[in-house]
Amino acid sequence: MNQATIKEASNYIENKYTIKPTIGLILGSGLGVLADQIENPVIIEYKDVPHFPESTVAGHKGQLVIGSLEGKQVIAMQGRFHYYEGYSMEQVTFPVRVMKQLGIESLIVTNAAGGINTNFSPGDLMIITDHLNNMGTNPLIGKNDDQLGDRFPDMSRCYDQEYIEHAEQCAMELNINIQKGIYVGNTGPAYETPAEIRMLRTLGGDAVGMSTVPEVIVANHAKIRVLGISCISNMAAGILDQPLTHAEVMDTTNKVRENFLQFIKKVIDTLPQ
Ligand code: HPA
């Protein structure tokens, strides 16, 4: 993905609105409802944006929603691209490059994730403090474009510390019980085995999902400040004596919708920038 393709996509998007978004939002499985609350929205379907892939998962809409939320100018991805859909890492992270080109300085990434930490319960929200890239690849592999970022980007604070504290504070003020923890990014699409979950717990993981890590690596490369929020949609494999289903994931995210919306809106309203 070179700068020409990034610019073609961003030019196309920029010509559709007059505001300048400063916050990007990537909304995961069942969490796209946040974009429905954006005021005076300009909606652009992924399929219309040059070089954007199309999203294929149930529960993911596949469009950009640009407008104002809590008085901030935002650009939201209602649905994201997953590696397991067959897209390259470059394709998965292309929208982050485009949002950077559009001027965002902050990125809020959300996802549905399985709880590895046995202190968690389905429906909990978790602030991501760090991640384990367990995808076996990296979106920055290949020739580095120095204009986009460093060859060997530092990852020691890829989830912004001030944002972590800000999100914690917001949850406290709203009386929402919030967890903090480490997100493990797996490729999927198969859910993990119980043995894999025990391994990931030993490695220090608190929640597991099939997204987020590629986008966060690229955002960090692009020097965008990141806040990551997981919705614990289910306990990971082997913890409860029941099979995992995508229906359960969607069902739980629907149930925590109100808390999630209230929380993210407050985070956005007072986000340090
Ligand atoms: N594992 C991986 N990805 C997920 C899960 C899970 O248990 N729940 C939601 N996304």
TrEMBL record:
<dbReference type="InterPro" id="IPR035994">
    <property type="entry name" value="Nucleoside_phosphorylase_sf"/>
</dbReference>
<keyword id="KW-0808">Transferase</keyword>
<comment type="pathway">
    <text>Purine metabolism; purine nucleoside salvage.</text>
</comment>
<feature type="binding site">
    <location>
        <position position="112"/>
    </location>
    <ligand>
        <name>phosphate</name>
    </ligand>
</feature>
<dbReference type="InterPro" id="IPR000845">
    <property type="entry name" value="Nucleoside_phosphorylase_d"/>
</dbReference>
<feature type="binding site">
    <location>
        <position position="192"/>
    </location>
    <ligand>
        <name>a purine D-ribonucleoside</name>
    </ligand>
</feature>
<dbReference type="InterPro" id="IPR011270">
    <property type="entry name" value="Pur_Nuc_Pase_Ino/Guo-sp"/>
</dbReference>
<feature type="binding site">
    <location>
        <position position="211"/>
    </location>
    <ligand>
        <name>phosphate</name>
    </ligand>
</feature>
<protein>
    <recommendedName>
        <fullName>Purine nucleoside phosphorylase</fullName>
        <ecNumber>2.4.2.1</ecNumber>
    </recommendedName>
</protein>
<dbReference type="GO" id="GO:0009116">
    <property type="term" value="P:nucleoside metabolic process"/>
</dbReference>
<dbReference type="InterPro" id="IPR011268">
    <property type="entry name" value="Purine_phosphorylase"/>
</dbReference>
<comment type="similarity">
    <text>Belongs to the PNP/MTAP phosphorylase family.</text>
</comment>
<feature type="domain" description="Nucleoside phosphorylase">
    <location>
        <begin position="22"/>
        <end position="268"/>
    </location>
</feature>
<feature type="binding site">
    <location>
        <position position="29"/>
    </location>
    <ligand>
        <name>phosphate</name>
    </ligand>
</feature>
<feature type="binding site">
    <location>
        <position position="234"/>
    </location>
    <ligand>
        <name>a purine D-ribonucleoside</name>
    </ligand>
</feature>
<feature type="binding site">
    <location>
        <position position="60"/>
    </location>
    <ligand>
        <name>phosphate</name>
    </ligand>
</feature>
<comment type="subunit">
    <text>Homotrimer.</text>
</comment>
<feature type="binding site">
    <location>
        <begin position="80"/>
        <end position="82"/>
    </location>
    <ligand>
        <name>phosphate</name>
    </ligand>
</feature>
<dbReference type="GO" id="GO:0004731">
    <property type="term" value="F:purine-nucleoside phosphorylase activity"/>
</dbReference>
<keyword id="KW-0328">Glycosyltransferase</keyword>
<dbReference type="InterPro" id="IPR018099">
    <property type="entry name" value="Purine_phosphorylase-2_CS"/>
</dbReference>
<comment type="function">
    <text>The purine nucleoside phosphorylases catalyze the phosphorolytic breakdown of the N-glycosidic bond in the beta-(deoxy)ribonucleoside molecules, with the formation of the corresponding free purine bases and pentose-1-phosphate. Cleaves guanosine, inosine, 2'-deoxyguanosine and 2'-deoxyinosine.</text>
</comment>
<dbReference type="GO" id="GO:0005737">
    <property type="term" value="C:cytoplasm"/>
</dbReference>
<dbReference type="Pfam" id="PF01048">
    <property type="entry name" value="PNP_UDP_1"/>
</dbReference>
<keyword id="KW-0597">Phosphoprotein</keyword>
